[in-house]
Amino acid sequence: MALQMKQEGKFEYLETGGPGEPILLLHGLFGGLSNFEDQISFFRDRYNVILPTLPIMTLPLRKVSLAGLVDHLEDFVKHKSLAPVHIVGNSLGGHVAILYALAHPDRIATITLSGSSGLFESAMGNTLPPRKNYEFIKKKTESTFYDPAVSTKELVDEVFATVNDRNKGLRIIMTAKSAVRHNLGHKLDGIKAPTLLIWGNQDTITPPFVGEQFNELISDSELHFIDKCAHAPMMERPEEFNTLMDSFLTRVAEREVVV
After folding, report:
1. What is the pTM of this model?
2. Does residue 141 fall inside a structural domain?
3. Tens digits of per-residue pLDDT, 229-257?
4. H/E element holding 88?
5. Which of 9, 101, 121, 145 stands the most exposed, by the fewest C-beta atoms within 10 Å?
6. Which Pfam families match (predicted)?
7. Total H helices, total E strands in the chain
């Protein structure tokens, strides 16, 4: 059954309403709710899978920053009265997840990060690309994936439209600069929740060494690489991603029962 987008005040989100614990999925800077279609299908019968829209394009301009996104997420979790959540973030969504987990450790059951920013990222840079340069945007979008075919024309068109909208383009740059300023290297030892790291071997935006650094700095973490995969494993290699995450959640649950 297709999910319907819900709008409640300032919050826009999808929710499966499954019987289990909540899984909160956070998309990246150019991402959207469609990035997690395979995770919805896989986990919806056992968990309540929730996908909020991060309001990168709609926050008041003075609040456009990682801090503004974390505040929005905090308000959303309170609005939904969520129990401790399994929080999952790709790219910028991972950065937001970490900052939220550091601020509210009591509300986090587990963390799953994939291609997360927060230590090092190489994206579009600090200025907008040449306006109307479709081929440039196409190549940049394709670089997110190991297989360029995953980057559909619809996806390229969406990114192209975003960066050629002056208002949206400005917000993209402001958010990206905020992410660079919020380096987490000195904070990650504060993460105590069990953490799963899933990285693409061919990720050129947050390369494999970034996953290794996260693994070193987060004490209770495990790192898995997926081959022939770049910056968005949940899209490009959904079966491997889902298997790794499912096994991780099961093992954490079993560990808690033993304790």
Report:
1. 0.93
2. no
3. 999 999 999 999 999 999 999 999 998 77
4. strand 85-90
5. 9
6. Abhydrolase_6
7. 9, 8
